[in-house]
Amino acid sequence: MNIDELVTHYIAFRRTLGEKCNTNASILRAFCQAVGTTTAIAAIGAEVVVAFLNGKGSITSAWFKKYQALNGFFRFAISRGHLSEAPLPKVFPKQPPPFVPYIYTRNEIRRLLDAIPSAHDYRNLIQPGTLRAIVLLLYGAGLRVSEALNLSIADADLPNALITVRDTKFFKSRLVPIGQPLVGVLTEYAQRRAASHPGKDKESSFFLDRNGIAILLQTMDKTFQRLRDFAGIRRSDGARFQPRLHDLRHSFAVHRLIQWYRQGADVQRLLYHLSVYLGHSHLRHTQVYLTMTPELLQHTGNLFELYARKEDHHA
Fold this sequence. Notes:
There is one protein chain. The chain is mainly alpha-helical. It is built from 13 helices and three strands; from the N terminus they run αααααααβββαααααα. A hairpin with an 8-residue loop joins strand 2 and strand 3.
């Protein structure tokens, strides 16, 4: 059996288990192209695999993502009797330092919003009002970019201040309550949308470009990069990536935690609710936000000091 046929069988198998398998499918299709789609699975050597893993640039976290995808595929091939051993490297490169999301300050959020009219020109598919509504939704409700762009009209129950996020990253749907200021922003956008693009049914995309078409992720990314540059927001820590759209979600979580600490709330208890709100599958995915900024570290350090003092008192 050739590599292309077996990859097709493997992807179908993973999807029968309920996985989307989109990322791994993309990696494996790229691997097929690299080795030749008609190459027999048994003829693939370790040197070809290493070349695909290493790519042309420096080693990044993508190496490990590709390795995991290939490891799962080759294990499948072995279980089906097509291979006796996976042609994977036995020695791993040094793992690069973990990527640190950028946490926008509240002032930077204001600068982004203020820069929207200046950043717009005739080539932009995303109108200023639409861009403003999306940025505020990402920051105000902590949605993933894909979740916001996939919303339909029916998903935005604005009279009841509820957003329904369907078929998310972890195959779950969830209800996201939103505050009245954000309801006002989205209602204003919805009214303009209905006037400029009448006749759309409730299953059509909530956010549309100027042509009345659902907004593509790459279009949103490019538009935001232009906006970020106009706002003059850049990283100064030498990180590989400049502040991203997805960092608005991280900023939402961190700012919410800081506000709870300032209010003296029981953050450990509320962290579970934040995890559910964000659509995380495990609490540990939310706990990483506790160490993202010096202010949060200071708050958690102060609480630990109080705890330690109580322990000393009872000793």
